[in-house]
Specification:
It is a single chain. By secondary structure, the protein is α/β, with parallel strands linked by helices. The chain folds into two domains: about 250 residues, Glycogen Phosphorylase B (Rossmann fold); about 160 residues, Rossmann fold (3-Layer(aba) Sandwich), CATH 3.40.50. Helices cover about 45% and strands about 10% of the residues. The strands form two sheets. It has a seven-stranded parallel beta sheet, sandwiched between helices. The chain has a five-stranded parallel beta sheet with strand order 10-9-8-11-12, sandwiched between helices. Helix 11 crosses helix 15. The longest helix has 29 residues.
């Protein structure tokens, strides 16, 4: 069976999808990853068949509009619609056309749930079945407020669920004009936000997160399943530099600080906040500059600076992990059994920060726009020294290791589509 798996977004989003591609290929499926062209090298390194979609996500996020979106975060969903439309408009038409071409010979399509309506459109045009996957819950539920909703506390079942519907409307509004233009060009009717919910609630959907972190809501349809986190279970093959190994061996486990694919409006200011916070704590730190959330810094006896390193290798060697709260980074930090300090920038990251706080594996998240050296230093100290926090993180780690999420997902797909031949 020939499957096209459509991924777009941050590097964490694409890596999450790549893990499923690799797992399905070991089950005998023929799977091609269709993703923006700037991820070609990632696919090549993993020997994954790749169909490039026009558009460079890293370049978009580094633009002035992208930085403004990061700075605004989830505080103003209405403003974010305009910002996202400006970014999406630059690539949406080309991406839609390329995805249609990527599915020309496919027997089935797997899409990230955030792009469910685009996935449904292409699947309809190609007359193939669709399956949705998500690293963060998108279906409304009375159990929790919608990820990305500005108020991340329990609002009661009715308001929690209403926030879910509202957030779906906001997300769909990001790319609705571009999508409907594409649909009309191909003889299909316009879609409305209620169609987005209809697709999410009727098409089989696999939630790639832990039941220990988000128990399956009772008000979700049977078509939605939680599989556990999709994490590589093989020993990491990463070969660290001698300099990094030497730094790690010179003293107590350091703190990790990195914001992954996030781009700060003022990366130099963010770098100074991070350095001052580390200085206040007196702790050693490994700082990852990523896509530009933190500007390049010099290494020292107290600080080791790198672009990035595989989380599954690096995180278990840390005492605490400071990150942006992306779904994939949160999963790896929890699997490492280390307390998390989450500094959310956008959309679902505040949600993950609150979930980590709720089960006692980290302090209150600090929004990036409100970050100061004092706040960060205080949070690091709490995470690195609180024994209860460490115990809770280790407890969650044990649950995650027992789930084998990729195996669960592959088994469902094998059952759903019947055969890999």
């Amino acid at each position: 069976m020939r499957i096209t798996l459509f991924a777009a977004g941050s590097q964490g989003d694409v890596l999450f999808c790549m893990r499923l591609v690799k797992r399905l290929r070991t089950s005998g499926f023929s799977v091609t990853l269709a993703a923006p062209e700037n991820y070609a090298s990632l696919a090549e390194c993993s020997d994954i068949p790749f169909f490039p979609l026009r558009g460079d996500v890293q370049q978009l996020m580094a633009s002035d509009t992208g930085k403004e979106f990061m700075h605004t975060g989830s505080s103003n969903p209405l403003k974010n619609i305009a910002l996202m439309r400006r970014m999406v408009a630059q690539v949406a038409q080309q991406l839609s056309e390329d995805l249609l071409a990527a599915c020309a010979e496919a027997d089935a399509l797997i899409s990230l749930a955030v792009f469910a309506s685009l996935g449904e459109t292409v699947a309809e045009l190609c007359n193939i079945p669709l399956l949705l996957i998500e690293p963060t819950p998108m279906l409304p539920s009375g159990d929790f407020p919608a990820p990305g909703w500005p108020i991340q506390r329990n609002l009661g079942r009715v308001l929690n669920r209403l926030s879910g519907y509202a957030m779906l409307a906001f997300v769909f509004a990001w790319y609705r004009p571009s999508l409907n233009t594409f649909r009309l060009q191909n003889g299909l009717r316009r879609l409305k936000s209620r169609d987005f919910y209809r697709t999410l609630s009727s098409v089989p959907l696999l939630g790639a997160y832990s039941d220990a972190v988000i128990p399956h809501p009772s008000d979700w349809p049977d078509s939605a399943r939680i599989t556990g986190y999709w994490l590589d279970e093989e020993e990491p093959s990463f070969q660290p530099s001698e300099a990094l190994l030497s730094f790690l061996e010179r003293g107590e486990p350091p703190v990790y600080i990195g914001f992954g694919s996030m781009t700060a409006k003022d990366p130099e200011r963010m770098a100074q906040i991070v350095l001052n916070a580390v200085s206040r704590t007196g702790r050693r730190a490994v700082i990852a500059t990523g896509w530009g959330g933190i500007s390049a810094l010099p290494s020292s006896d107290q600080v080791f600076v790198l672009d990035q390193a595989p989380h599954d290798w690096l995180f278990p060697r840390m005492s605490a992990i400071v990150h942006h709260g992306g779904a994939g980074t949160t999963a790896e930090a929890l699997r490492a059994g280390k307390p998390n300090v989450i500094v959310p920038f956008i959309v679902d990251q505040q949600f993950w920060g609150r979930r980590v706080q709720a089960f006692g594996a980290g302090p209150t998240p600090i929004p990036a726009r409100k970050l100061t050296a004092r706040r960060l230093a205080d949070a690091i100290e709490r995470a690195a020294t609180n024994p209860t926090m460490r115990k809770n993180a280790e407890r969650i780690r044990s649950s995650i290791l027992a789930e084998h999420g990729l195996d669960q997902a592959a088994a469902f797909i094998q059952e759903y589509w019947g055969t890999s031949k």
